[in-house]
Structures are given as structure tokens and as C-alpha cells.
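Pair request: fold both.
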Amino acid sequence: MGFAVTGATGQLGTLVIAEILARGIPASEIIALVRDPRKALRLQEQGITVRQANYTDPPSLVAALAGVDRLLLISSDGIGQRLAQHKNVIDSAKTSGVKFIAYTSILQADTSQLTLAPEHKATEEYLVSSGVTHTLLRNGWYTENYAGNLSTARQTGTVVGITGNGKVSSASRSDYAEAAAIVLTDAVHDGAVFELSGDVAWSYEELAAALSSVIDREVIYQQVSTETYTQRLIDAGLDRGVADFLTRLELDAAQGLLSLVTGDLSRLIGRPTTPLREGLAQLV
């Protein structure tokens, strides 16, 4: 049996590999697909097979997927280019005889108005049309996405945002990684659609309180206008395009598009998801 993970040296991929090993899968049955093998030396030292593969290079993907039975397709970070890249992986997997694909999508991808949803929805539809047996891991927000807020809170004692009363049901990246490893290594979940999120939806005022506890400094939530928020991002060194994109994500949160709590994640991993404060403390 060959278990492969794309983006295996990335933040999520690294954790997934560790979780697969923790589930008793021999390193000899794990294949790490990476863009730069030089970054995967630690994986090689563990006895894991490392193969170079690029989402934009179908021949490399076909070769790298040879002998793979079950594949975890971690969505690419190429926003705006994801669909084409994901199609390359799915087509190459089918050519190479991969029997199963788990795909890391986004919460409620088929119906959500999230800024990030369209590419994920289109990828899901393409995966379904491929005929390859699959499972959809619709991941919610990562607590790690708020590392920047942690840094700002230390410096200024504030969390600046435009979310109002909007809530976020985040979980730690390790929670999502454990879920992915479970689905990849246990065929009982084949064909399922999981809406994965944290057990608790929290407000930005609650985020500020959690940060206060973690850094031992009073932190307050400061609501600003959309224009002010975008300008602060630009003043921090981001270009206009990135600042506008991040602003749209915050407006998504304000509309409650990141607040869904389903319990799927905790049921799948067999334990509660990592609480917000604990997840932030891990960042420290």
C-alpha cells in the first residue's frame, strides 16, 4: 500500500506525515511529494520516499504518483491558479492508477460565499467527474492564521479588525492534520464529505481575551472601518492586492461565513478540537 501526500514539506503536510506515522503506517509505505527535495531531508532520514512533483508539471506528477494507492491532495497556495493545478494532480493520479484521493477543500465549499470558495468548489466538481473514489475534507479556519494578531497584541495591546459580532470556529492545524491522516489511512471514510471546524465559534472580543491570557497583557478588540483596516495592512508593507484580499476575508468573518460548528472534526479525531487559548499558547 502506498500513501502519498502532496505539499509534504508545507505546514499542513508535515503534520499529516507525522500523524500517518503515529497511526502505525511504516515509513516505507509513505511517499512525500515535494517541489524541492532539499527541504525534505528529514523525511528521507525517517525512511520516507521523497519524490519531486510540481502542481504545474503533469509529467512530474505522473511519475511521482506511480505505485500510489491513496493520495492526499493538499490544496495549493496559488490562489487564482488552484483549479488548473488541482486538475493536473487529479488527471495525473488517474493516469497513474491512484485508487483514492482525499482533498483539503474549504468549509461548505459547494454553497459558501467565502472569497476562497469558488476554486475549491470547482475542484470538488472536477474530482467528482474524474470517477476516482474520493473524500472531501472541507477545512475551516486555522487558529494559526492569527499568529499576526498575537504579534500585534504584544506590541500594542490591541486586536484590530472589522468583524463586528462575526464569529470564527477555528481549530489548530494539528487537528486538521490528524483528520486527514485518519481519512487517508482508513477506507471506511471513502466517499464521505466532512465539514471540519472547531467545536466553539468565538468572537474577536474573545480572541482578544484569549490573547490577554496567553501573553499576560491586557488586550482589547478595536473595531475600525474597512478603509482604515486596509490602509493599516498597506502601511505594514503589504501591496494593495494582498491588502484587499485579506480585507475581504475579514469581511467574510463579519458575515459569519467562518462560524459553522458541525462537530465533524472532533468526531473524526475522537477528541475535542484544540481550544482557542491552547492553540494560541502553542504559537507562543
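--- second member of the pair ---
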Amino acid sequence: MKTLYWWLILLAVTIAYPLLLGGMSPYQSTVLILIGIYVILAMSLDLLVGYSGQISLGHAAFFAIGAYTSGILCARYAAEPIVALFLGMCFSGAISWIIGWSVLSLRGYYLAMATLGLTVITHTLIVGLQSLTGGASGLADIPSFRLAGFEFTNHVHYYYFVWVVVLLVLGACLTLVNSPFGRTLNAIHSDETAAATVGVDCAKYKVSIFVVSNMFAALAGSLYAHHMSFIAPDDFSVFTSIHILIMIYLGGVGTILGPAIGAVFLKLLPELTYRFHDYELLGNGAILILVLVFMPHGIYGALRAGGKRIKDKCFKRRLSEGQRLLDTNNG
């Protein structure tokens, strides 16, 4: 029931926010749409890092695959955006399945370096295949998203669409991690050798979650391409992967909701401190260090701990008041 309440609150806030503002400017809607897209990226990476314990710096590569698949199919071949979106997810899933068996045999820093290589290779291919991707100049004229004949040319309509997708991805991630599949991933994360000893096919589970995580990243990429209408290689660089990784550790790795909070925080922060834009990377690094030192379980973990302390204090107060009333009655 508590989970249902949080879902209803999030849904109510999403619906009511534009209404309370009396409408949104294109700038406000762009910020909120990008926040939604990065929430999807952070939650999907948390499936891989937080629940299976596989450190990945290659999320930007699959973000790019989704964006460029949608962009190329729609801008150059006039494909339906919804078809391009699903093809991008399938293409990302197929690549993940093919390379996952070899990449995920590595562990720790070796795995991080291998996935970093995926981002570098993808970035190089985007620049090199100029006739198809537009190269370093980028890919332009990507149409707005269209679904069942309705085109999301209005920025507020697209805001609602993106956040409906965010809620669906959030529901899918929470369902997955609370299923037997998710509990098996936790077992692999805790002790892969012990999990293999009791008969768990660790390689199969790690590749499966790698595929799911990267398909969600491709979904985010498609939403991003149709919103921006122009994409360039620098949108999907190594720094993008690092930025997403910072989000999940900032919010609280292995919680799904924590990375979502981290994504909201890190995407809103530049808007609030735009005068210090030149020091954004320095600021993000400093914030991450402070959080890891003083809030090792992230923002979400700190909020949960604070809520638990408040509940404990309230319980103790009620208990002492009850004891006082009991003593009074006995006296």
C-alpha cells in the first residue's frame, strides 16, 4: 500500500505541475523532459550496477544507439517514430546479447574499462559513418514523436508522454528487482561464487540484465532524439556515461528510486547555478565526494534513515506518554 501511495503521489505531481503553473514555457518543459529521460537512464543503469554488481561505463553507447536508430530511420527513411523506437530497443538488445557474453566475463575495473571502450567505439563509428549519421556535424531534421496519428508538437503534451514512459519504466524496474529474477541478481551481487555453487547460471543472468538495462537506455535515446530534433556525437560521449554513473551513486545505488532522485538533482542543479556553468564538472565531483563521505547510501538512503529516526522518536514519545497515563491511572 505504501508503494501504491507513492505511485499515486508521483502521478498526481506529474499531472498537476503544469496546471499549477498555469502552463509551462518551452524552457521549463525542456528541462523537465530531459530530467525524465535521465531518470530512465539512471534507473536502467542501476539495474546493472546496483543489483547485479556489474560496473558499466558504456551506457552512453546504448543511449546513442537508440537515438541514432530513431533519428536515421525517421529523418532519412520517414519511418514511424514508434516503429523506430522499438527497432532501436531491439538493435540495442541484440548488440548487448552478442557482446555481453564476452564483456561480462570480466569483473571490477576490467569490466569498467571494457564498457568504456564500447562508448569510445560507438562515438568513433558515429563520427566515421558520416553519410549515415551526419558525422561530427550531427543529424538534423528528426521529426517530433508521433503515436496513433497524434503528433507531439506541443511541448507540454510531450512532457506528459515522457513522464508516462518514466512511470512505466519505474514500474517495470521495481517489478523486476522484487521478482525471483531480481533476488537472484542480488545473490550474484553478494557472492557470485556462492550463487554458482547452488546452481545459478551467473553468466546467463548477467547477460540478461545487461540486455534489459541497455534496451531501456535505447528507449531514453529515442525519446531524446525526437525531443531535440538534432543529435550530435558529443551528446553521447564518455562524460555522459560518467554523468549517469554519478547520478546513481549520488541518489543511492541499488534502490531504483535513489538513482531517480540523483538524476533529478544533477539535472536541476545546473539550472539553479547557471552562473557557475564553467565549474559544473568540478561541482559535480565535489558533491559526489561529499555524499560518499557523509551519506554513503546516497540521498535516498539519508532520507530513509532520517524518516526512520523521526518514526522512532514519535514511537518513543507515544510509548512514554502511554506509560505516563498508565502510571497516573494506577496511582
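Observation on the second member. The first strand starts at residue 146 and ends at 147.
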